[in-house]
Amino acid sequence: MDILQKRKCLKFFTYIVILIGAFLMIMPFIWMLSTSFKEPLKVYEVPIKWIPEVFNFKNYTRLFTDYNFSLYMKNSLKICLLNIVGNILSCSLTAYAFAFCKHKYKNRLFLLLLATMMLPGVVTFFPQFILFNYIGWYGTLLPLWVPAFTGSAFYIFLLRQFFLTIPTELIDAAKMDGTSDLKILFQIVLPMSKPAIVVIIIYNFMAVWNDFFGPLIYIIREDQRTVAVALNYLKSTYEGTSSIPIVMAASTLLIIPSVLIYFFGQSYVSKGIVFKGVDK
To answer: Is the model's pLDDT at 96 over the cut of 60?
Structure first.
């Protein structure tokens, strides 16, 4: 067997292993989707019937008629949009300063900013909770989106690294024409940084949409619940036989927005993550 045949065999077995792994990874999702259309008693049938004999769409309709799931989705979308807008505005301003503004201690401050990424969320949660409770934000949606307008170290790092790939000649030429830094940022830098912006939108949306811990701590009213918290309460319901099908229907609705936003923005992910060393 020559080298070419060995490479073909190796590639063939590699694809087989990848297909098997992909099938094992997607099986739980297929089971969830199949179960969401089943009657409660059909869930426990052995062997498993992957395609239901009768598709029961009531599991989906009852989420909106009996459990007010549309309100929970609106709350989650509202928080996601506010977080995305806040992070893009605050992080782009900070990243622009670190990338193009001249300051004696700029790189030292940037390294200090990166050091904050090593702090676990548990360490900063309790001081934040005490602060939000002291100023009367506990029980409101404010703690879930206002911090986004103060910036995120990871998103600042991501944008700053991408900004450094933009030719400085464009920035210098705009400044020579008398253009302000804000106009340079919003009219030149950000339009050229669409891949990085899309990456921030994808990461931020998926993190906030699937966030369970934050809304569970700060939200105390039912009309303010997000879909992740509502799904947890839905699991605790018991309807005679089983609540599994309706929980699987809610889980499917919870996954669909994340899948769609990643599907349409995946081409920007590899372009948006650009790294460049910190100048000394």
So the answer is: yes
